Amino acid sequence: MPLRKIHLASLVCAILLLSRLSAQAPPATTFTQKFQAYLKDRPNLTSRSPQESRWLDGGDRYTVLEASAADPRQPDLVAYDTASASAKS
């Protein structure tokens, strides 16, 4: 019988300790939230998704939609040479 009381007391102490620790923990920040905050401070970082590219001339060139210098809200269609990665209009 005394062993059962010890186990019960240990269980109650463990539950109380865990409840206090979880109440003091700061809110978790996910990797996605941290990464979005990182990107928010760096507007010059852009990505190109496969939906924006098309191959031309049997793979010699490809097109990409990029922000227009004249109007950043409107994309420009830019063709790149595959071998040199230089832009060609």
What class would the helix/strand composition place it in?
alpha+beta
Strand order of the largest sheet: 1-2-3-4
Strand content: 15-25%
Q: What is the share of helical residues?
A: 25-40%
* Number of extended strands: 4
Spatial shape: rod-shaped
How far the N terminus sits from the C terminus, by CA atoms, comes to 87 Å
Major sheet: size, sense and barrel closure?
4 strands, antiparallel
Low-confidence segments, given as residue ranges, are none
Number of domains: 1
Radius of gyration: 29 Å
Order of helices and strands: HHEEEE
Mean pLDDT across the residues is 76
Tally of alpha and pi helices: 2
Structure description:
This protein has a 4-stranded antiparallel beta sheet, with no helix packed on it. The chain has 89 residues and is of the alpha+beta class. It has 2 helices and 4 strands. It is 37% helix and 21% strand. The chain has one domain (2-25, 49-88).
List keywords for this structure.
89 residues; alpha+beta; 4-stranded antiparallel β-sheet; 2 helices; 4 strands
